[in-house]
Design a protein that fits this description.
Helices cover about 60% and strands about 0% of the residues. The protein is mainly α.
Length: about 70
Amino acid sequence: MASAEERSRRRYEEIKLRGGQADYDDILAKVIERDRIDSTRAVAPLRAADDAVVINSDSMNADEVFASVMELCK
């Protein structure tokens, strides 16, 4: 799981790499609002299970996240 700030940074970079125009603050506001909506909905609110292992991927790339998950599987 990555923070809203990190997910927004990643999205911003993705858009810029494709040649698009992006505003980080706008993206961050939308991510925060989507998280709020998803976590407070009446049916199936988005949240980690009580027994979930949460990996903070803020400072990890995809390969590092994969390696962390594989370590948990051992």
